[in-house]
Fold:
Amino acid sequence: MAAREIVIRKAEASDIAALKRVLEETFEGTWLPHISAASAQRYVETDIGGRYVDEHWLEFAVAEIDGDVAGLIHWRGDFIEAVHVSASRQGQGVGRALLSHAEQAIAAAGFEQARLETDTFNVPAQRVYRSTGYAEKDRYPDDEWDSGFTTVLFVKPLGGGAN
Structure:
């Protein structure tokens, strides 16, 4: 099967349902097996992922393959807040394409580095980050999930201007 083109574009209102689906898939596949039952219940009951999309979708870039949303990325300044790839599209270069897009925008805004975080249990994400030029900079307790995790901060130099 030929490789399908990954198109990166600004999110549109018509993407909202698909964006929420991507976050639901990554929550269920990545986070749910590791977080406490209380944290999982809080996430579902307060619709953390859905509210995140509702509040920030205008700031997202999406990866699209054959007209379907395959992933999303959200950054502020030099910090990548979120990168999520649909379960069916993982391992197809979607995350790398999203990271590259964000890094180009971050560098164009004059920042010299891109930063992002993940938790120690998320080894697949760490592999992607390391293979795309990110280096571990720090570790600290994760206060988001209340599940005893350790957060890993990754940094990648971009060669942008001073900021």
